[in-house]
Amino acid sequence: MTRVTLRDRLASFAFVLPALILFAVFVAYPIFYNLQASTLQWNGASDGTFVGLGNYGELLRDPVFRKTLVNSALWIPLTIVPQALIGLAFALMLDQPLRFRNVYRALLFIPAVLSPVVVGIVWSQILDPNHGTFATVARALGFDSLQLNFLGDPDTALFAVMAVNIWMFTGMSMLFYLAGLQLIDHSLFEAAKIDGASFLQRTTRITFPLLRTTHLTLLLLGIIGSLKTFELIYVMTSGGPFHATEMLPTYAFKQGFQVHEVGYASAISVALLVIAVGAALLMTRVFGAGFLTGEKK
């Protein structure tokens, strides 16, 4: 049995030390600083006044904060599920021996690497009710009733931004599923074909269950990504109209940098952190600690 000396332990610690320093400076310290700031009534410039849990009590009474929770509850399933299903469909098609399939893969993946700010600006122009591409095409085809102010109507604004988000990140889901498909033994499909299974039966009874790890990975990444969605919403609607598209990050930004209620914004950020960590722990509890590696509970 090899004996581990003090020198070996120090050498191992020296390799880990840079990562620990980076974690302490860029993760741990901001979290503790944010927690401390959330207990203050503070504008970010002058000395703050300690209010304890007062900011959190205000959160519970804030109708806009409750609206952000409702929007997040809608955003998560209505973006993650379509992205996953459409991405899986594209992956199944592009996993076939098609001509130029690598070109199609690249074209579908391009939106995922674009800046959300650029995407938001372009789609805002497309959805402009007066001079946008959508309105122009609707007028040319005689469908004047489709000239709607999708981003200016509280009933449609959130769903319009959701549609843009789905367009943007479906390619990412496709890429994950393509990677997952490469790990499946194709002899299973050949055996199923011999047994007379149709493409739909092979997909639902072989492919979909064996992509369990990919499903769960996309679910976790989708939840975290949904909770921190900021750029796309801020560029397209700024959280409006009438907070119809307000999310936790946009509301925290407004409170901190527009209203200058930094303490209250910190409390919103802490709530966001708690929700994100809680979602991750819940998934670990439900699916097991090894759900991202495919290990069984």
From TrEMBL:
Bilayer topology: Multi-pass membrane protein
Keyword Transmembrane helix listed: yes
Keywords: Cell membrane, Membrane, Transmembrane, Transmembrane helix, Transport
ABC transmembrane type-1 domain: residues covered: 69-283
GO biological process: transmembrane transport
Domain of life of the source: Bacteria
Record-level GO cellular component terms: plasma membrane
Residue ranges crossing the lipid bilayer per the database entry: 12-32, 74-94, 106-126, 157-179, 218-242, 262-287
InterPro entries: ABC_transporter_permease (IPR051393), MetI-like (IPR000515), MetI-like_sf (IPR035906)
Main location class: membrane
Subcellular location: Cell membrane
Similarity comment: family membership: Belongs to the binding-protein-dependent transport system permease family.
Name assigned to this protein: Carbohydrate ABC transporter membrane protein 1 (CUT1 family)
Organism in which the protein naturally occurs: Salana multivorans
